[in-house]
Design brief:
Layout: E1 2-3, E2 6-10, E3 16-20, E4 46-50, E5 61-65, H1 73-95, H2 111-119, H3 125-132, H4 136-146, E6 149-152, H5 165-172, E7 181-184, H6 201-208, E8 215-219, H7 231-234, E9 243-247, H8 253-261, E10 268-275, E11 298-305, H9 307-316, E12 324-330, H10 333-339, E13 346-350
Helix pairs in contact: 2-4, 3-4, 5-6, 8-9
Amino acid sequence: MVSPLGWISNDETCDVINVVSSARSPPKSPTHVDSNPRYKVSKEPYTFTNRYPGDPSAYPATTFRCSRSIVGIKRFANAVWYRSKAMVKDVVTHEHSDTLTDSRKPHWAPPEILEMIVAHLAYNPQALKACVATCSAWYNVAAPHLHRTLTLRQWDAESSHTYLNPLEYLHKLELLPFIKQVQFERGIFGTPWASPAIFDSESLQYFSALENLQDLAIADLEFFKFPMGVGEYFGQFSPRLRSVTLSGPRGTRRQLLDFFKLFPKLDDINISHYYTWVGAHHALDTPIVPIKGELRGQLTLGNFGDEGLLKDIIFAFGGIRFTSMDLHDVLGTQLLLEACVDTLETVHIHQSGF
């Protein structure tokens, strides 16, 4: 049986339909076959091939599977035609995209311009979210600003193991490399919660994946809850960490010093509400081993009452070279000023209790 669309054969062993078409106007509809017994055709798998002059390899080919009666061939042929036409259009557009006029080419702003724009929105989360949802170019520039800071807080006083759950979610979204600052907020009703209990094996794995972390801030860190030391949990940030903030730390002078010595690249130190602490866990009486440290950024101390810790820091890091100081009620202000007399550029001192 021959139709205007090509050649049709009833073949029970073949149910694959190969279509090769061009962007020419659709051919005429095939001969209509109705349910008249004189034209009735049994439902059998068949092969349908659309043939046109020219080189068939120049046109896209697609494969269909079909098993239907010849009665529905008109609707099937129309569907095949429009799908083939769309495929040819895609191929032509791809092959001749370099010949498009300037008015049809997309206009992209240079990444440097996008970075300048997004830099002004760094502290506007809503604006950053809008930039991320614009397109891939804007996403690549805005996403690092939007996910730069991760804040961990105590949601429930009973389920401490859920505090680091956001890390698993961020890992699935591949956002952990964007995080450069981690903040452990103060617990509910001032109860310390940053302890080994929150670092199960899975959470510690995700926490260690923060490969670009530069700033660490912890509130109410109780060092005596880490009998084996804090190096197991924070030591992986040693090569990159530049800033440490401790608010209300609870530990001996030696415990704080060992914590700071984990980070030889440290530039900035911020300590508030710390006084000489004596508890059940006493530091070992071992000599301090100096390291080759930095400490050339900013020192911020508030309500600080342990001059001995400052002396140990100066000795352990081979001196201090801070360029900026912000000192509020600090015991040992004179010591700090003398140690940084050659490097200090700006200083703010407020003394009321000492």
